[in-house]
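Aim 2 progress update. The chain analyzed this quarter is reproduced below.
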Amino acid sequence: MKRLLLVLLVACGGNKPAPVPAPPVSSPVAIQAPQTSPAPPATPATIKPTGKPKNDLIPRAVLFGNPERTGVQLSPDGKQISWLAPKDGVLNIWVAPIGKLDQAKAITNETTRPIRTYFWAYTNKHLLYQQDTGGDENFHVFRVDLADGKATDLTPTKGARAAVVDMSDKQPTKLVVSINDRDPKAHDLHMVDLLTGKH
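Predicted structure tokens:
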């Protein structure tokens, strides 16, 4: 019996641990070139519109361009009529005698910024309008003389905004304006002499 065990131990290698098999040698991995995506399908040179496109759309110039005439007013004595209309592409004030529109003439000569707001003075010899510089919204009040078209800034303070507040036929050469020259947040009222520009 002892001989049989001894033979088995020798045959099995005794009490030595079985050798660990070596890891298999891996073959080098072949590097593949990146695959290119297939070319997009060719598109036709021109795509025909679907539906029913219209060719009778309103032109942009009609929607956003200058009006032919706007802001029509009568002078206080009813003898003259005024309106805003383009002069060289910029809205200016035009004046004509009642019933003689063919004698209309532009009495202002703004070349860069359109006039949007204007008033007749109770003198019937002057008009007032508001204008800013380069879109800064610091509007000034201007007087324009009908006789010679000369424009005078009645509120010449730089960086301040002014507006006509009120006028009265009882004091035709006076007007009340608001100016924020003291404080940008506060508009103070001033009485301005239309003829001299004095506050």
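The longest strand covers residues 171-183. Residues 3 and 9 are 10 Å apart (CA to CA). These observations will guide the mutagenesis experiments scheduled for the next reporting period.
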